[in-house]
Amino acid sequence: MQQVELFPVSSPCVGVCQSNSKGYCLGCLRSRIERQKWNDLMPAEKMRVLDLCALRRAKLDALLKAKEQAKAEKSAPE
Asked: Which pairs with CB-CB distance under 8 Å and at least 24 residues apart come from 50-55?
């Protein structure tokens, strides 16, 4: 049996609406399919998409941090 949600799950859209080369939105990090199907998803499915977006954001942040550190180490005097 499906659990009824008392509050709707809000869209993570931040209004950027541009995709990278892999099809993920640069603003909310949802895939094309996740964006297209958002209104048809059940609340539990929407929560799963939000979890995936959070994981993608953490991975992206870690990659950007590593890139900045490598750049700083390269430009630091020896």
From this structure: 50/9, 50/12, 53/12, 53/28, 53/29
Q: Which two tokens stand for residue 14?
A: 């931040």
| Residues 25, 57: Cα–Cα separation, whole Å | 11
Phi, psi of 25 (to 5 degrees): -65, 135
**pLDDT average, residue stretch 12-21:** 94
Indicate the DSSP class of residue 19. Answer: B
Structure tokens at 36: 């297209």
| Cα(26)–Cα(47) distance, integer angstroms | 19
Count CB-CB contacts under 10 A for residue 28: 21
What is the pTM assigned to this prediction? 0.81
Q: How confident is the model over 36-52, as a mean pLDDT?
A: 96
